[in-house]
Every structure is written in C-alpha cells, then in structure tokens.
Amino acid sequence: MQFTTRGLPRKGLLFFVIFLARLVSAEAQNTLKPAWDAFLNNDRAGAKVKFTQALSSPAKSDALLGLALVCEYDASQGNAFSYFKQFYAQQPAPAPYLYALWSTPVLNQGIKKTPDALAFFNQLAQRQDLDGSLVAMANGTISKHYEESLQGQEAVKYTAKMGTISQWQITGEFENISSSGFDKTYETLAKPQADAVFTSKYGAPVKWFTPPFARRDKWFDYAYYFDFSNSVLFAQTFVNSAAEQEVQLRVGVSGSVKTWLNDQLVIAEAEECNNDLDTYIRKVKLHKGYNRILVQIGESTAGNSNFMVRITDEKGVPVSGLSAAASYQPYTKEHTYKVTTIPNFAEAFFEKQVAQSPDDPLNYLLLAKTYMRSDKVYETRHILEKIRKKYPNSTYLNTLMIELFARNDDRTGQETTREDVKTSDPEYPLSLNLFYDNAVEKKNYTDAELYAGKLEKLFGGDEESVLEKKLSIAGFNKKQDELIKVAEYAYGKHPENKTFVTYKYLIEKEVRKNNQEAISVIKKYLAHNEDWELTSTLAQIYFDTGDAPSGLKLYSDAIARDPVSVGLYSKLSRIYYQLQNYAKAEEYVNKAIQIAPYISGYHSQLAAIYNAQDKKENAIAEYHTSLSLSPNDYSAIRELRKLEGKKDVQDYFGKTDALQLVKAAPPASAYPEDNVLILNESVQTVIYPSGGSEEKHSMLARILNSKGLEKWKEYGADVSGWQSYIIETAEVIKSNGTKVPAEVNETEMVFTNLEIGDCINVVYKVYNYSKGKLASKFWSTFYFSHGYPYLNTSYSVLVAKNQPFSYQFSQKEIVPVKTSVDEFDLYTWKQENQPGLLYEDKMPPMKDVANVLHLTTIPAWSYVANWYNDLASAKAKPAYEVKEAVAGLLDGKKGLTDRQKAEMIYNYITRNITYSSVSFRQSGLVPQNPATVLNTRIGDCKDVSTLFVSMCKEAGVSAQLVLVNTRDNGIRSMILPSIDFNHCIAKLALDGKDYYLELTSNYLPFSSIGGGSINSITLDIDNKPTGSALKLLAPLTRKQNVVERKTAIKVDNEDLLVSETNFKVAAATTYTREKYLELSPKDRLKQMQDGIRSTYPSAEVSKLEFKNLENTDHRDTVFTSIDYNIKGDVKKIGGIMIVTLPWSNKALASDFTVTAPRAFPLDLSQLYSNDTESEVISLQVPEGKNVIENLEPVTLSNEFIDYKISLKQVGKVITYSRNFKIKKDLVPADQVMAFNDFYKKIIAADNKQVALR
Q: In this predicted model, what pLDDT tens digit does every residue of 1117-1163 receive, in sequence order?
C-alpha cells in the first residue's frame, strides 16, 4: 500500500506522521514477537535467527537492537557493538537509546577503547543535535581512554569540553552513620565565609578549605580529602553570571545529595545512589553577579562519595560566559523563585513508549536500563517485575536482576537469582562461569576444567577469560610447565592484559631469575598503560636492588600525572623517612596535608618526621591535631605522652606481683565450700582528654577442686565488637612457681596441664574504638561481689579532668580513694577478703543482687536515644520490597483503622520472618535494611522491629523502636547511661495510647508480652533532645496473660475420669502453639499424655481437641479440650474413697526452697508467667456416696498474691473454684520467710482431699 501526503495541511501532516509511526511500531511488535519470545525464553540462537530475518522488514531498527541485546551478555552470538552501530546509523533520533545502553557491554567494554569505538565516541562528542548529557558523557569516555593510555594532554582537552564546575571549597566530616545526617541542619548553610568554624563528628574544629587538585575526570571525589565513610560532607562554589538568567543546574552523585542555589534548596535526594552526570536536573535562576552553590553529599551505604555539577541551557549545553570562584564572594540570597524539576529525557521517552506499546518487551528493557543508570532501584525493580511475570525464567532478565541486587547490596537476591540462571539455562556463559567458580571453591579442579572447556568451545581458545582459567587450573594442579606454557602463549596473544603481564613478570623474576627481563616486561606495559599496582611493583624492585632514584622517579611521575593522589604523597614521604631524608619526607607529607588537612594519620606521620628531626614542639602540635581529628588513635596518644615527658599511663596504677600473691595465698582447706579462689581481680581504665579510653584487665585465680578445674580450664577475654585487644599474659602458675603458657586463639585461652592447686594468670588490654556520637564516650560495669570468694579486687579509673564522669554502685557504696595526678583524676575502689555470693533458689539475676560499680561518661539517656535514633531511623525508610509488601497487605481494603493496619503488618511479619541472630550476617547495633529482611525472610530483634516501623511508615501509622534490657539481666542492670541493651521491640501510638510489640515470636498475639519480659528495662528511641528515661515494660495496653479452666471429674471405681476445657489468652497461648501446632494429631495426643504423666504417671488421654491453634487471624485465644483417665488415683480406705482434686497448676513444696536467713529477694517471675489463673472443677458424687470430708473455703491475700478457693453443691455435683493472681512478683529478702509461710497455706489448700462414703 502506498500513501501520499500531497495536499495535507500542516496539522494533518503531523497527525499522519504520528499515525504512521504507531502503525510501524505495531507492525514491528507483531513481526518481532516470536524473536522476543525466543530471546526471553532463553533460545538465543533461535532469537538471533528471527531478529536477523526481520532486518528486511519495517522492524529493522528494533531487530538490530534485539540482536545487540542477544549478544550483550553472550558474545558467542556476535558483536553487540557492531549491531548497535548499524542501529545508530539508520536511527534519526538515537539519544534515548544511547543513554539507556551507555553503561552496558553494548556500548562500553573497558576504559581503553578500540579504534573503532574511539571513533564512534568522537563522532558522538561532535554532534550538535544530541542532548548535552550525552555529549558530556562522550567527552568523559574519550578522556578516560587517553588517561588510561598515558596521554594526559589529550585527556584534558576532552574533560574541558564537559562544562563542569571544578572550583570548590569543602569542609567536613559530619556524622552520617546509618544515613542519619541527611535531614539535619548544619551551620555550613548559614556560614559561607572562609573564617567560619564548624565542629566535626569527632568534635574537632574544621573550616572551609580549597583543595589544590581534583580528579582528572572532573568528578569531585571526597575520597581524596576525607575519611568519607559514614560522613556528610559539604562543598561550595561561587558562580559569576554577567546577567540574570534561567539555566539548568545538573548534578550527578555517589551518595545522598542536597543542593542549594543562593541558599534556596533546589535538590534533596535522600536515597544513596551511584549514578552518572546530570541525573538530577532543575530549572533555576542565576542572579547577576555571584551565585552560591552549596552541595551536601552523604555516605553510609553507597561506598563512594563524589559529585559533578554542570550549569547548562535547556539542551544540556554548558552555559557560556560563566566563571566560578572557590573563595567566598558576596551573593544575593534567593527566596521566591519556583524551581522546576526537569525529567530525564530518556526516562520520559521510554515511559511514554511503554505506555503506548505495553506489549513490546524492548521498551521495558530499555526503560529498566535507563532507570538503572540513575541507580533508581525501586523503579528498575518495578518495571523488571512486570515483564518477568510473562518471562519468569528469562536469563537475560535474571542477569539484569543480579546487577540490580548487587547495586542494592542484596546478597540473597543475587545468590538466589544466580541459582535460577544455573538451573534454567546451564549452558549460558554466566552459568558456566558460576559453575566454574563453584568447582574452584570446592577444589574440584576436574569439574573446573570441564566448565572451562565448555567456555572455550563457545569463545575459542584465545579468548582472554578462557586463557585466564587455563592458567588458574594449571596453578591449582601444580603443573608448572603447563602454567608457564599457557602464560607465555597468553602474553604473546594479549600483551595488554594485566593478568598475563603479571604472570610473565613472575616467570622471568621467580622462575628464570632474570630481573632485567622482568623489569622490561613491566616497563613495556607501563609505557602506555596507567596502573598503580604494577608501578608500585616496579618501584619496589628498584628499591630492593639499590636503585632508589629510579623507584622515587616512578612515584614522582605518578604524582605528576595525577596530583590529587594524596596517598602517593604519604607513601613517598614514608620512603624518604626510611631513607632518613627527613626534609623530603616532611615536604611530601605536607603536600598530603594540603590536600587532606583533616585526615589524622597524615598529621601523626608529620609528627613522627618532626620528632626524628628533634622538632619537639612541632611534633607535639601535630599529635594534638591528629588526636582532635581521631580521638581513638592510641599510638598517637602514647607518642604524644612521650614527647611531653609524661608518664606511661600504666605507671599511675599500682603493680601486682602475681608470684608473690600465689605464694601468700591461703590453703584450699580455708575454703572447703568453694571451687575457685580469686587471688586478685582488677581493671585499670584510662579515659583520655580526647575521649578515647583503654582498659587493662587482670585475673589471678587458684583452682581448688575438680569442679573449679572444669569451669576454669578455658577463659575468654571480655572484648566487644568496637574494641581491639592485646593478650599480654595467659599462663598457668604451678604451686612451685613454674609458668606454663596457655594456648591462645584470638580472645579464647585454654590452660593445658592445669591441675588442682594451680593458678591461672591472665592480663589483657582493650582499646575502645566506638564510632559516631559514642567515639568519645566510655561506659562499663565491674562486679565487687559474685559467685566466687576473693582476696583482692579493685577497679581504678584514670580520667582526664576535662571529662565529665559519673559512677554509682548498685547495692552498697564503696568510697574511692581519689587523687589528682597531672592532668588526670585517679579513682580507686578496692575491697578485700570477700566471700562468694551463695546461690539461693529463685533469686534475682546476679546484676540485681551483686554489688556492681557502674561508670559512664554518657551524659544522659536522651543521648543514648538520639544516638540509636540516628543509627536506626534511616533504615526504616520504605524501600521497594517494603512498598510492595504493604501494598499487597492493604490493597483493596478500604476504611482500615491504624490499629487494623498495624495488626495486619504485625501478623505478616511474625508469620513470614523467622528469628535468626548470626554475627557474620548482622551487626550487633545497626539493623539490616528492611528490604534484606523481606528477601531473606530472617532477622534478629532489631531487624524485624525496624521492618515493622518501616512498613507502618509506608502505611501511615506512627511507630518507633524501643531498646530493651530483658528481665533476666536484672531490673537494676542499667542504673547509669550505657548501650548495654540486648533486645529491641517496637512501639505504636494509637488513639493516644502506647502499645509495645514483640516481633520475634511466630506465635505471640498482637500487643501481648510474655511474663518473663514484663518489667524489662526499656528506652524509647526518638530524637527528643531531653527527657528520655528508662521505663519498666509494663504497659496498661498489653493483653493480660490469662488461663481459665473448667474441669469435670467422675469417680470410676479407683479411677478418676477427667474432662477439661480451657482457654489461654495473650502470651499464655504461645507455649501451646509452640508445642503442638506443628505436630500430627497422633503426636499431639502423645505430647499431651507425656505432659500429664509428669504429674499423674498412670494417666491415659483419650481425647484432645484444639480451637484457634492455627496461627490465623484469631490469635488472641487458644481453646483446648482434653479427656483423660487417671488410673488408681482414687484411694480406698475401708469404705471411704479419697479423691484428690486435679488442679492443673497447683502450688507445690518443690516450687522454691528457702532457708533462714534469706539473703536475696524471691523472684516469682521465674515461677509464674501468667497474670491470672482460674479453674473450676466439678465433682460428680457417685450414686450411693456422700461427702464426709470436704474442702473449706479459703481466701488468702498479701501484697504479692491473691488466692481463693470457694465451693458450692447442687444436688450430687460439687463445684470448686480456684483463683490465683500475681500482684507483685518480687518478694524482698526480709519478707521471704513470711511469704514462705503464706505460700505453705496455698500448698495446703491446693492439696486438700475430698472423702466420700
């Protein structure tokens, strides 16, 4: 069919063009559908045939792209770049396609380009019709090629065309642990002047400074100037415009970003991304004169911290006539201009294409790739999941998902998807590589060779990755001749491959002992390749062979090529220091400091150089600067003290002579009831002016008997994750004074050859390296009483006079000996000849009964709450998985209350996420990303609680975290501020009331708290500046833990027939579900019978039924019906029948044992977990029998328990009612004996019998 446009008006012509384009697009979809189906169902060869056949159709353009994608990750199918060039040549508007595929193997393979590729990018860089982003990207790509090829002058020509702003003043570092710094307000916005002083995250004064050099590719990279990890950093510049004008401000980043123009916030992106230039585009107004641009970059998960800013016209072309100054210039603030967000042109294009052609896979793929270039994880995942519904086993889609998971640091997603690829497409190159890697990991080199062979068939024997595998296999199999042969061949074929160059170098150096040839190999490679690793190797050869000038020249040449490389200045300084050329050493480290003035290590390095030159005052000043920047640099602390002529801090403490203490120790006969005698236990703590702290722990203990030997044959140093340590002494001291070293593995010590009468002697130091707000804080506890007797125990703290310091004893005050020594105050608490604490039944936890010294420099509980809020709150920001999970829960459910939403989320988490706490997977403090928890389906308490808060936030429900120290650690375990919590829960605010939720149990109903958790210590996590305080977990909103039973009993000769129904409410349901839910009916019956037989050995269960046992929406209550027969339970004496009422939870004499005098309280929470228990037993009096002795009504009450038994008779049925309620669960020591007498009355009442005749 032919069309003619003659005579059509302009408007009609436009309509016709659009119509024709859509017609062609629809025809292309129909033509290519079999090809796309083949490709996305993993038939790449078939897809290639079908796409090739379509090259003669109107679908040629899309077919060429299809062929490029077929070859993108499978080069055995052809050259992806070649197909794309054909597409590009016949595509009048290639810009969105270039953008989508820019970072893929289709367009970019390696930094150095082939002549063909270089010509292609040069052509792009010269086009006037492309979006300016693409032109800038092309110039950047060409520049990097020339940099890598050591053609620096050529590289500079191309970066100059990119139009980036390169003049910046910078300052930092500010706290951003767990992304906590993004929303904070900083003084940097209000203080642009050069003399402004800010306070860094370590409390150091920092100022604006202008770095002398920057990265050659025009990305401004904080890695050269700061320790950017977990930091917010700022940069400012002042752009001069000859006239007021509207322009586009374009920013690309690694990290989160905020950008202000003339102090007006124009960009705020909290999500940490690694994206490309021009990712965020805003239409803004430049004033005439100077305009201040302020950029905030935050890093906590991105792994990088950098940015690029361009000012362009609406086409992305750099605005001419602008200049920038790093130093402060007066500027006019902006308050009223309405900033416009400009969408990414490629995203807008493919979003429209997807909307117009929702059945065309190509548009989905290119849109996903476009999103991925901007690191838009959520959007990429969303679009990929749409197309995966149609092609669930597509290897190509799974490959994209693997890349996406890698960007999001989702290891589980990566591994799961890799396994899917291996299963569904085992001959795919990625699968073969994965199989190869797995075989190597398992040291199965036969299989590894098999998979390498398959790859060789696909790509040929000369392909680089194939040759690399052959080299590895030869090495694994220790076939040196084969390895040398393959290496020589590979090097000859690919002399630009660094791996092969390294092998060739090692062969010449280590095998042939030909140093000159080895040097020649590296020099040849380095003549036209920039590679610092091999440069360093060559330099070391020169140093090792006495040719220091040649080695030094390599370093100076590297610096000349890339003068921002701050680490090279430091390295060169160290080399000169070793050569005792202190002037040069000083020169180069000062250059490093000029680039990075706030990196503490360079100041310590300079201090050591000054010290070597006897420039004592200079050295002292540099160590002080270093410590202000890094308060926990203990090496710098020690060196500074030496320079200042101060004592070693350990010299302020008393010395302990272990051998003398052993000789003077009393005989074992003096301690007949004990297993171990502690001769000396001490801790000596130093808290420095900078806030850093270290501790020296000493333990000397004598083994008195075999139980003591078994307990103390192994000993572990008490070291936390934020501490380093040194084991100074670990030994056995025999009675004759002989010492036998222990076997030491990290913090664990094993005392071999330990015998009764020997002593163990342990001394170790720990150094505290807390991060963020806790970097300068100290907290600790020390027991002055415990389960062992001791002769001497002491705690000493040497605290700088400028450090606020608090201490408190949990039981009995011990007055310290306090002295003022130099810049410190020395506190020493000491006690001698103390017996061990004797265990008493149902006594509280040790921290509640021992005399514990608590120490802290943390000012208040609000400080802890703010610290953890910073640490965890950013993790609760809803990610893709969270949004999808909440949408799935709430979709279609209108009019839900906040409580209903929260309960649905609670049920979802507790049913689907399994509790798991494993150190290598989880941090002890920082929650996992909620997306990771949803993907892995496992998490610990802080992980599931943070997931709950995140899902509630997405659902519009107010929730927060609560830190907990559980009841079994004691209710007096945290009397001063510290971070010694061991659990995390969530808190809801609903209708003006607070609800506390435990999310680690699959069976616990909503708003229920187990009896063992009630009265745990809690701290609400928020960002309130003051007022935070510890509370005991006893919310009025929790469901009461209740058990009610109704039991009917009948006498059958000597047997007692029992029929019981009961229901359990709230946490009381948990035990029943845990024990019975997963069992078969037969196993449930057996489990119940075994339980009853523990009390009634002759019992036979005949019936067992549950209601609401399943973990469904009706979780609050579980109902149970049981029928059983207690054989021989009815006793006959003459004509009298004795019936014992089968109370289910009657009080027993064995519940606890007390003897006078009682030293400690009685903890009833270890015995009872329910708030209320009630039971009704109905006794059917047998025909012809009458009651001759019955229970008496009993009412007992004190401040701890209410107990009541009542009865009534109707005809031949007697109903007995028992009610038991715990009011307070901790009986003070001085009331325990009276309580014991009270409890005996309950025991007696519970064991009363009924006599019938």
A: 999 999 999 999 999 998 899 999 999 999 999 999 999 999 999 99
Tell me the CATH number of domain 649-857, given options 1.20.1270.10, 3.30.460.10, 1.10.3980.10, 2.60.40.3140: 2.60.40.3140
Largest CA distance in the chain: 125
Neighbour-count burial of 672, counting CB atoms closer than 10 A to its CB (0-12 exposed, 13-18 middle, 19+ buried): exposed
Structure confidence at residue 242 as a pLDDT band (50, 70, 90): very high
Q: 1042-1252: same fold as 649-857?
A: no
pLDDT of 28: 63
Q: Quick: pLDDT tens for 53-97.
A: 999 999 999 999 999 999 999 999 999 999 999 999 999 999 999
* pLDDT tens track for 622-639: 999 999 999 899 999 999
Q: Would the CA dihedral through 257, 260, 263, 268 be positive or negative?
A: negative
- CA dist list (Å): 297 to 75, 138, 236, 308, 955: 39, 25, 12, 11, 29
pLDDT at 918: 54
Please give the CATH number for the structural domain made up of 863-1032: 3.10.620.30
Where are any strands of DSSP class E within 189-244? 197-199, 205-207, 220-221, 231-241
Q: How far is CA 1021 from CA 64, 195, 989, 1114, in A?
A: 56, 37, 13, 31
CATH architecture of residue range(s) 163-342 = Sandwich (2.60)
876: pLDDT strictly greater than 90: no
Q: pTM (2 decimals)?
A: 0.88
Please say if the pLDDT value at position 659 is more than 70: yes
Distance CA 1207, CA 25 (A): 87
Q: Which fold has domain 1042-1252?
A: Jelly Rolls (2.60.120)
Among 239, 72, 261, 103, smallest CA distance to 167 is for 239
**Is 376 in a helix, a strand, or coil?**
coil
CA distances 725 to 397, 721, 777, Å, are 48, 10, 18
CB atoms within 10 A of CB 88: 17
Q: Does residue 844 surpass a pLDDT of 50?
A: yes
Contacts 24+ apart (CB under 8 A), 191-198: 192/236, 192/292, 192/294, 192/328, 193/328, 194/169, 194/327, 194/328, 198/171, 198/174
Which residues, in sequence order, are CB contacts of 1022 under 8 Å at separation 6+? 865, 866, 869, 960, 1028
